[in-house]
């Protein structure tokens, strides 16, 4: 054994891999963990390299151990020649593979166990020596029947009673150095049987190696070139490109006793539909800051479609197509922002300037699994749609102040002009923008009705039934099945009369009807996005702190008479289904964060019921702090890497994420586009904040000429050209083995209705 043990970790495309890698590093002091996929190398290429490692860990993964594409090279590890024999520890699929390759049969559980905690019984020997009580998380729908495997010795069990009987939870090979557990020792809710079991494995491994004279060969650069560096590491594409530059942030602060963001936006020209406009709106608690981008005709616009070899950058009438070259879009965005850094802004203000816009669901899913051929891009939203904001107004709603900012040189005149205009808003607003919209019942029948096309009920329920079959087969623990609703809506009457923006009128109604902490109005032609999202996806602080935080929501109860906090806690935190869904996503997010920042990832809050303006929600909080060595290699520009590793949002896909994305692509039959992507900003100081695009709607402006052929784009967005707009709303729900298909349909419709209510007032507003 070496002073720094080298562990080869074989990953079967799971979404808990880096959690287990982190557990290994804590349990095995000074260990170096190298992670490869189960299909990266052939058996003939990999097996000779085992002599350079001290042990192998075979992680969990989707599918079945008797399906070659699911298990890859893992099956060969159990049959190596004696001179290549090496201690191995398997988890979940790893246990099943070990057992099956030695004669066991794989069976389906009668009742699957996904994200549920069970007592594990053991005999205090081998892996479980001095472990004591074990309460462990199980994620599996398959189990092993050892009746035909005389070489396999069971070590631990879980008693499922009438559901599944006694299920094997730990085992070993009777003569070879192979051990495994079925449960997930790395889960945040596993207590006992985690780090202590890994320590026992390492003790058993070192004893076996010593007794059998196994000597680990010295590390070889050729081996590293084959298996890659140890974790954590930075992708070569993500190394800093471009020459770093930094400019000062100029700031003026104005007291605004009653900040009214809609009036300020109208002062800045939001009602002119021919222009781009971006605003991120903390329209409800616990939001604090709202951000308005003060764009100019030459503000840089960035658009990109998955699969394109170039990124389109527009400055006014000047459009360039910049080749990605050896970079991917994430590394390109990192390089773009590296040359546009700023300093000396107010430290408590989260946004000094930077990129604002959205990233599509497909942008994230492409990283996991290549997209199939796509249709005509003229009728598709860009997958990256961002604008660089050099001038901004940030409203601090807690302090009742506005911060006017610019990173342009010699921009004092503009700053002073905006300050003077804002000072006219120092008293409460009395104009029409402050008037709450009428209730639908008061306006019913007074204007043209919206034409609403909901998803087909039978088809949606069939998809849920099909999704559950994928869960029973072991391919996923949870699948978020979604569907689009189409709305052909009349333009707002007042907007038509004045020739102004109907989408802005609709946003104000949505904001009043469904206020949310991550609301926003993004008009970046050809796309207009109206967000009323309740959910932050990820935020990351400016260096040197660099803390990343994710706040997944799984479980919502709408406020109503009799729904007190105690009742909401019983319905949410007291529900096995809701907690299991939340736990799966927490473990998945830990994995995503670990993959970038390294070991320092912690769950700060687990399944706490939080109160919002209209709902109670079950919220967890996960934080990660980048490893110092990772920051040095990436020059602290890790924000885009965190997004790349975390998208699409796990609770909008399921786990394991890659297989779930592929299944959902098949089930849903169409791209999601903007829905279940993210909207937010990347700050010139190095921070960022992005929300999940849910409870939102978006529309696409048809190009009139040359919009996607290198010419300056022109779009049919003038209010006089058409009396209707076509909007898309996405909604869905997490499907687990406990889901009732009809109830899931009803929950999806309830989510759609939270946005549809805004369209009821549109024709007469």
Describe the structure.
The model is unreliable at 429-446 and 704-715 (pLDDT under 50). The longest helix has 22 residues, at 576-597. Helix content is 26%, strand content 30%. Strands 12, 13, 14, 21, 22, 23, 24, 25, 26, 32, 35 and 38 form a 12-stranded antiparallel beta sheet that branches. Strands 15, 16, 17, 19, 20, 27, 28, 29, 30, 31, 33 and 34 form a 12-stranded antiparallel beta sheet that branches. It is built from 21 helices and 38 strands. With 765 residues, it is of the alpha+beta class. The chain folds into 2 domains: 6-231, Class I glutamine amidotransferase (GATase) domain (Rossmann fold, 3-Layer(aba) Sandwich); 253-426 and 449-546 and 635-702 and 723-757, Anthranilate synthase. The chain is globular. Helix 9 (329-338) runs antiparallel to helix 19 (639-646).
């Amino acid at each position: 054994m070496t002073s720094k043990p080298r562990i080869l970790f074989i990953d079967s495309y799971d979404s808990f891999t880096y959690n287990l890698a982190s557990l290994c590093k804590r349990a095995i002091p000074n260990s170096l963990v190298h992670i490869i996929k189960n299909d990266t190398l052939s058996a003939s290429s990999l097996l000779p390299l085992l002599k350079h490692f001290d042990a192998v860990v075979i992680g969990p993964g989707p599918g079945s151990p008797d399906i070659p594409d699911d298990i890859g090279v893992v099956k060969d590890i159990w049959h190596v020649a004696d001179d290549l024999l090496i201690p191995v520890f398997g988890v979940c699929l790893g246990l099943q593979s070990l057992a099956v390759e030695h004669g066991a049969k794989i069976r389906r559980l009668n009742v699957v166990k996904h994200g549920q905690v069970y007592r594990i019984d053991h005999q205090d020997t081998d892996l479980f020596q001095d472990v004591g009580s074990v309460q462990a998380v199980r994620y599996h729908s398959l189990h092993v029947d050892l009746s035909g495997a005389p070489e396999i010795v069971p070590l631990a069990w879980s008693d499922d009673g009438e559901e599944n009987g006694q299920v094997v939870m730990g085992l070993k090979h009777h003569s070879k150095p192979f051990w495994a557990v079925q449960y997930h020792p790395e889960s945040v809710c596993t207590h006992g049987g985690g780090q202590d079991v890994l320590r026992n494995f390492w003790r058993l491994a070192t004893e076996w190696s010593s007794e059998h004279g196994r000597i680990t060969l010295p590390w070889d650069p050729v081996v590293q070139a084959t298996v890659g560096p140890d974790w954590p590491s930075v992708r070569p594409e993500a190394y800093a490109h471009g020459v770093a530059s930094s400019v000062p942030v100029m700031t003026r602060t104005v007291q605004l006793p009653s900040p009214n963001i809609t009036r300020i936006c109208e002062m800045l020209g939001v009602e002119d539909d021919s222009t781009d406009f971006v605003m991120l709106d903390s329209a409800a608690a616990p939001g604090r800051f709202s951000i308005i981008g003060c764009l100019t005709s030459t503000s840089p616009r960035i658009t990109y479609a998955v699969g394109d070899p170039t990124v389109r950058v527009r400055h006014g009438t000047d459009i360039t197509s910049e080749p990605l070259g050896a970079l991917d879009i994430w590394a390109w965005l990192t390089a773009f922002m590296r040359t546009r850094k700023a300093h000396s802004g107010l430290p408590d203000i989260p946004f000094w300037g930077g990129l604002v816009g959205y990233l599509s669901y497909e942008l994230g899913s492409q990283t996991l699994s290549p997209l199939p051929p796509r249709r005509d891009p003229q009728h598709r939203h860009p997958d990256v749609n961002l604008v660089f904001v050099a001038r901004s107004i940030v409203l601090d709603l807690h302090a009742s102040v506005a911060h006017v900012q610019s990173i342009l040189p010699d921009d004092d005149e503009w700053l002073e002009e905006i300050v003077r205009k804002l000072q006219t808003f120092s008293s409460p607003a009395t104009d029409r923008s402050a008037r709450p919209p009428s209730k639908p019942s008061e306006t019913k029948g007074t204007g043209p009705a919206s034409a609403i096309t909901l998803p087909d009920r039978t088809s949606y329920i069939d998809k849920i039934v099909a999704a559950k079959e994928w869960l029973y087969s072991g391919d996923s623990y949870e699948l978020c099945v979604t569907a689009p609703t189409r709305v052909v809506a009349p333009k707002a009457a007042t907007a038509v009369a004045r020739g102004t923006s109907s989408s802005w009128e609709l946003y104000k109604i949505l904001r009043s009807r469904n206020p949310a902490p991550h609301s926003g109005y993004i008009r970046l032609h050809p796309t207009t996005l109206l967000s009323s999202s309740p959910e932050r996806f990820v935020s990351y602080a400016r260096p040197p702190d660099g803390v990343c935080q994710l706040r997944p929501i799984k479980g919502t109860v709408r406020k109503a008479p009799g729904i007190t906090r105690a009742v909401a806690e019983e319905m949410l935190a007291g529900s096995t289904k809701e907690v299991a869904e939340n736990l799966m996503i927490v473990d998945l997010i830990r994995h995503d964060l670990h993959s970038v920042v390294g070991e320092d990832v912690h769950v700060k809050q687990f399944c706490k019921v939080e109160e919002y303006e209209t709902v109670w929600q079950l919220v967890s909080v996960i934080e990660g702090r980048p490893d110092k060595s990772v920051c040095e290699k990436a020059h602290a520009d890790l924000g885009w890497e965190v997004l790349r590793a975390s998208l699409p949002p796990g609770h909008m896909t399921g786990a394991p994420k890659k297989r779930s994305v592929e299944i959902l692509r098949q089930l849903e039959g169409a791209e999601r586009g903007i829905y279940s992507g993210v909207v937010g900003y990347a700050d010139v100081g190095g921070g960022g904040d992005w929300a999940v695009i849910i409870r939102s709607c978006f529309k696409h402006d048809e190009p009139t000429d040359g919009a996607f052929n290198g010419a300056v784009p022109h779009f049919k967005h003038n209010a006089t050209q058409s009396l209707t707009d076509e909007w898309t709303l996405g909604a869905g729900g997490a499907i687990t083995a406990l889901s009732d298909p009809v109830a899931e349909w009803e929950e999806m419709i309830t989510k759609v209705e939270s946005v549809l209510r805004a369209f009821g007032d549109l024709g007469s507003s």
